[in-house]
């Protein structure tokens, strides 16, 4: 099973996996496609295996892992038709059946291989800082009506030093995801079959270009892992980590980007091309005619106008600024007025 | 013959001496040639010769059900350590003095007007003319010199300080630090003989280069708290080793859910030990 995880905004795009700690057999984990040195047959080698026997020619083989960045690719196993169907099912489900295939026109569907930096292996390190313990202390103080209990929070800091050795699996997108609509995506892998990325493939497949350097990815990884290793609520003063075996590689993960038109707007949906699940989707918002809005908006306007007439444009300006900040993009005032009135009194989709 | 694919190499697993095929051992990094009995270890891209020793059981008859667990044994270069610590401490003390000087600023607090009039009724302290005050937070916490000297002298008196790094496969990686620290603390006498690979043996999965990185952290974790918590010292200290690390199999005896080290005299849970050589070879 494969997964691209959509995470909550603000959380780092990271999947820290420990197959050992979660009790899963390592031998049942990912496989890597290679070629037998004796007969040239295709082999699948499990993660962590150092020696294997070719199932075709029975030769004993040794997997050497020299230093350097490796590049892997996961082939798409979901067809375009299946991806389109998954997106439409998801759309119908999210809109309660109100938006179906006949209400939309699909503009395009593209298979894109998204690069991720992935750091996996054993990590050893040391972290030190201050562990902050806060506790509420109740004290009795004299007051005008006798004594009263006053609560105050006391903070106690105690230095800590922790040594860590753990199996890690951390990933971060290597390309700019803003244009793919994949912000906050983390790569989590289970039993995936990776193949060596042949750079000649770029001519036949669409790949997003890696923009982040290996050094930057490594720094990000160590910084995040320091926060993982630190006790909760502590202040980290210094940390140092070493990745044993130094396995930082690029993994190309396949996703379908589907764009469709509904009404006068264009929406996009991202589908995992390894298992067909919808990672994220823009869905037309339900604009319900609010009976409360029908009453509250005129009532508030009348109240503001009755109190002091300039309050009405002031409130409108404040609401406009709020909407623009929330949308994250400038909106022309007349368009905003139409959209706002539509949201309050328009109804339908 | 080898096939090279974007950084990964698949090679024929053959004895580099006699050319015989080596046994497939899964995650193990050490391979023993069945024909010439030579041992080969994976190190990055190539197979290189390796010596595997077996610790001699200290005294008494050897129990029947012995499990051999491989450890890398790294010997700390003590003269170099003392000199490095001394250099770092001197540098830190110098920095501390400079920071303290920089932290001393003229005390320009306004004098209290009541005190000026000789009416300091509530005992307000005002700075005398030309006084200096210390800006807090500008100091580096250093370990007490006497304690550091005592610690260095203690380990130097041993003549040799060895760090033991568990190389066996384990379901949890933290066990490498905890077991390594236990074994290093016990400072067992190292009497060894070449290993014949007989009996139940856990497969080594840690390479020599990786073991040296782990040895650094295990070594630091054995420091007293007052020294080990000094990040300024520990972060600057690069541990040097007196010789190449040795791969040594130590005897353990199962007792219920635990295994007891016959050399170190401590117990560890049996579930912390992963694949054994015969299991890996047969799978």
Question: How many H/I helices of chain B?
Answer: 8
The total beta strand count of chain A reads: 15
Principal-axis shape of chain A: flat
Our estimate of the beta-strand percent of chain A is 35-45%
Q: What structural class is derived from the secondary structure elements of chain A? A: alpha+beta
Overall number of strands of chain B: 15
Shape of chain B: elongated
Which whole number gives the mean pLDDT of chain A? 79
Distance between the first and last residues' Cα of chain B: 26 Å
Mean pLDDT of chain B: 81
Q: Give the C-alpha Rg of chain B.
A: 28 Å
Q: Which residue ranges of chain A are poorly predicted, with pLDDT under 50 across at least 5 consecutive positions?
A: 5-28
Provide the low-confidence segments of chain B as ranges: 1-5
Oligomer state equals: heterodimer
Number of helices of chain A: 5
Largest sheet of chain B: 8 strands, mixed
The largest contact between protein chains, plus residue counts on each side, is: A-B, 53 and 50 residues
Please characterize this protein's 3D structure.
The complex is a heterodimer of chains A (349) and B (283). Chain A is 23% helix and 41% strand. By secondary structure, chain A is an alpha+beta fold. Chain A has 5 helices and 15 strands. The two termini of chain A are 36 Å apart. Chain A is flat. Chain A has helices spanning 80-94, 214-229, 291-307, 311-327, 333-346, and strands at residues 2-6, 31-35, 42-46, 51-53, 60-64, 71-73, 105-143, 146-173, 185-189, 193-196, 206-207, 234-244, 248-262, 265-272, 278-281. In chain A, strands 2, 3, 6, 7, 8, 10, 11, 12, 13, 14 and 15 form an 11-stranded mixed beta sheet that branches. In chain A, strands 1-9 form a two-stranded antiparallel sheet. In chain A, a hairpin with a 6-residue loop joins β2 and β3 (42-46). Residues 5-28 of chain A have low confidence and may be disordered. By secondary structure, chain B is of the alpha+beta class. In chain B, 30% of the residues lie in helices and 24% in strands. Chain B contains 8 helices and 15 strands. In chain B, the strands form 4 sheets. In chain B, strands 6, 7, 10, 11, 12, 13, 14 and 15 form an 8-stranded mixed beta sheet that branches. In chain B, α4 packs across α5. The longest helix of chain B has 26 residues, at 78-103. Chain B starts with a strand and ends with a helix. Chains A and B meet through β2, β4, β5, β7 and β8 of A and β1, β2, α4 and α5 of B.
């Amino acid at each position: 099973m494969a997964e691209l995880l959509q995470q909550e905004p603000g959380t780092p795009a990271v999947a820290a996996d420990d197959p050992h700690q979660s009790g899963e057999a390592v031998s049942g984990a990912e496989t890597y496609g290679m070629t037998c040195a004796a007969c040239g047959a295709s082999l699948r080698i499990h993660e962590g295996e150092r020696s294997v026997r070719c199932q075709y020619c029975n030769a004993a083989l040794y997997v050497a892992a020299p230093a350097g960045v490796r590049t892997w690719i996961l082939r798409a196993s979901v067809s375009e038709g299946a991806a389109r169907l998954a997106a439409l099912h998801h759309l119908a489900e999210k809109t309660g059946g109100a938006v179906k295939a006949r209400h939309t026109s699909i503009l395009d569907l593209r298979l894109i291989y998204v690069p991720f930096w992935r750091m996996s292996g054993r990590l050893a390190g040391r972290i030190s800082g201050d562990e902050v313990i806060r506790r509420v202390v109740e004290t009795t103080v004299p007051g005008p009506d006798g004594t009263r209990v006053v609560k105050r929070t006391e903070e106690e800091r105690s230095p800590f030093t922790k040594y860590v050795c753990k199996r890690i699996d951390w990933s971060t997108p290597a390309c700019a995801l803003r244009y793919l609509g994949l912000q906050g995506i983390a790569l989590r892998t289970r039993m995936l079959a990776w193949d060596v990325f042949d750079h000649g493939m770029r001519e036949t497949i669409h790949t997003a270009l890696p923009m982040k350097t290996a050094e930057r990815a490594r720094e990000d990884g160590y910084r995040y892992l320091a926060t993982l290793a630190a006790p909760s609520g502590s202040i980290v003063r210094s940390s140092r980590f070493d990745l044993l075996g130094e396995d930082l590689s690029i993994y190309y993960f396949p996703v379908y980007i589907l764009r469709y038109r509904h009404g006068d707007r264009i929406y996009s949906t991202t589908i995992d091309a390894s298992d067909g699940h919808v990672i994220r989707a823009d869905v037309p918002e339900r604009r319900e005619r609010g009976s409360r809005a029908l009453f509250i908006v005129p009532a508030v306007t009348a109240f503001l106008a009755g109190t002091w007439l300039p309050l009405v444009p002031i409130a409108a300006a404040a609401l406009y600024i709020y909407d623009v900040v929330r949308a994250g993009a400038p909106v022309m005032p007349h368009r905003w007025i139409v959209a706002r009135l539509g949201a309050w009194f328009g109804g339908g989709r | 013959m080898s096939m090279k694919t974007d950084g990964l190499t698949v090679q024929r697993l053959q004895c580099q001496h006699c050319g015989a095929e080596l046994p497939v051992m899964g995650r193990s990094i050490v391979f023993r040639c069945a024909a010439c009995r030579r041992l080969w270890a994976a190190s990055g891209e190539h197979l290189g010769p390796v010596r595997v020793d077996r610790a001699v059981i200290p005294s008494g008859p050897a129990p029947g059900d012995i499990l051999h667990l491989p450890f890398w044994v790294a010997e700390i270069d003590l003269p170099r350590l003392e000199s490095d610590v001394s250099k770092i401490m001197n540098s830190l003390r110098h920095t501390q003095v400079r920071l303290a000087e920089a932290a001393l600023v003229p005390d320009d607090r306004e004098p209290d007007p009541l005190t000026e009039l000789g009416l300091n009724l509530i005992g307000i302290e005002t700075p005398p003319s030309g006084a200096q005050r210390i800006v807090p937070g500008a100091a580096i916490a250093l370990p007490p010199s006497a304690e550091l000297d005592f610690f260095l002298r203690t380990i130097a008196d041993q003549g040799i300080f060895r760090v033991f790094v568990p190389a066996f496969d384990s379901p949890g990686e933290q066990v490498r630090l905890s077991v390594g620290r236990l074994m290093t603390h016990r400072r067992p006498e190292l009497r060894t003989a070449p290993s014949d690979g007989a009996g139940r043996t856990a497969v080594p999965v840690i390479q020599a280069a990786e073991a040296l990185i782990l040895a650094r952290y295990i070594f630091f974790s054995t420091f007293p708290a007052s020294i080990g918590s000094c990040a300024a010292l520990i972060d600057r200290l690069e541990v040097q080793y007196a010789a190449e690390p040795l791969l040594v199999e130590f005897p353990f005896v199962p007792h219920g859910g635990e295994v007891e080290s016959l050399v170190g005299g401590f117990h560890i849970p049996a579930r912390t030990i992963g694949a054994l050589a015969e299991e890996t070879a047969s799978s």
